[in-house]
Amino acid sequence: MKKTNIALIIGIIVVVGIALFALKNNRSEARSSADKTTQENMSVQNKPAEKVQVFLFHSTKRCATCIAIGKLAGETVSEFFQSELRDGKIEFREINIDLPENKELAQKFKATGSALYLNAITAGANNISQDTKVWQLTSNETQFKSYLKDKLNNYFGK
Questions:
Q1: Domain co-membership, 82 together with 99
Q2: Which residues pair with 95 in a beta bridge?
Q3: Long-range contact set of residues 85-89: C-beta below 8 Å, sequence gap at least 24
Q4: Same domain, yes or no, for 28 and 98?
Q5: Rounded CA separation 115/98 (Å)
Q6: Which of 62, 73, 86, 136 is the most exposed place for a label (fewest CB within 10 A)?
């Protein structure tokens, strides 16, 4: 090979190496920024919720799993959160998104189909999240209830 070809190859390798190094540093800075945001969100979430809404959104036609999630979530709330229910600190509802009277609530939660949403209201602010893990737990009632109970207890700082 000629000396000019070797110099060109070395030059390309150096440029690619510098570009990869710069890209890695940018990703680290972005990750660090995302970690700070996550930590801030966690500190808000670590404060006990004033109220928790457990809403199962569904359409008029429902599958067996969607029905099971509603049943198990309702049972979990009524079995383990009697005092919170009595004090109005927890609310469980099944909401049909096909009904006109539920459109506004479905939009607030960004619910478009069958899904379990939890809203931990802390310092007057909504902290809405969709829980997708419950779909995997419907075949084991004990696991489902334990999972949801622990998650709700965490919202209340228990």
A1: yes
A2: 57
A3: 88/51, 89/49, 89/50, 89/51, 89/52, 89/156
A4: no
A5: 14
A6: 86
Together in a domain, 40 and 72: no
Quick: pLDDT tens for 113-139.
999 999 999 999 999 999 999 999 999
Shared-domain flag, residues 14 and 58:
no
Burial of 116 by CB count in 10 Å (0-12 exposed, 13-18 middle, 19+ buried)? buried
**Among positive and negative, which fits the CA dihedral 121, 127, 128, 130?**
negative
Residue 132: which domain range?
A: 51-155
Q: Give yes or no: residues 20 and 96 share one domain.
A: no
* Three-class secondary structure of residue 131 per DSSP: strand
- Model confidence pLDDT, tens digit, residues 105-114: 999 999 999 9
Structural tokens at position 70? 């509603």
Q: What are the C-alpha distances in Å from 5 to residues 9, 15, 18, 40?
A: 6, 15, 20, 53
**Consecutive 10-residue averages of pLDDT for the chain (158 residues):** 65 64 53 40 66 96 94 97 96 96 95 95 94 95 97 94
Q: Are strands 128-131 and 90-96 parallel, antiparallel or unpaired?
A: unpaired
Total domain count, the chain: 2
